[in-house]
Design goal:
mainly alpha, globular, three-stranded antiparallel beta sheet, 3 strands
Length: 214
Amino acid sequence: EDFHRARRKQLAEIAEDEDDAFTVARHTFLELVYGEHPRHRPVSGRRESVAALGPEDVLAFRRSFCVPGGAVLAVAGDLDPQAVPGLASETMGDWTGKVPALPAPQPPGGAGGRSRFVPMERKQTHIMVGGVGIARCDPDYHTVALMDVVLGDSAGFGSRLGRRMREGEGLAYVVECDASSTAGIDPGVVWFYTATSPPRAGRALDVLREELES
């Protein structure tokens, strides 16, 4: 009963995402950038995959991955650090298992020149442009994070993109970029986003490209 309740809730959240233009644009953008790399998949899942899950799938996942080999123990509070290993052994000593070896996915290739238009009955057109970004360990990570602020981080108020697209041409209220927050062990994405009225979408895209190229 708990499983089916949770699945219904998850499916309802996915349905909301499918009706949200920004989320649809974001998911479509990630599919184009990552291709077959696992990071192209929505974290919340897809309607067909979640609907197909049963309690036995959750139990199988738990038995395979919720094991000591894939766990991290964090301890906080007024405890003697030297006593922690003994307490952990006493409490979880019969908990065994190693995480199954999984093939490491190939880094995304970052093939450019791909685009997709998703028609939706909305008052605004949501535009995302970008590609494969950098990994967290990249020596240029902090430089790229600074670039985010200069170009259009945090909705772009006072940023270069904001001055051009919002204050200069009145094309959009929100214009922003992000090239660092998704960086992890694998490369994240660099993306530039704005939303504008459908008749002005072409001009907004042109200005966005001009700013990125300059």
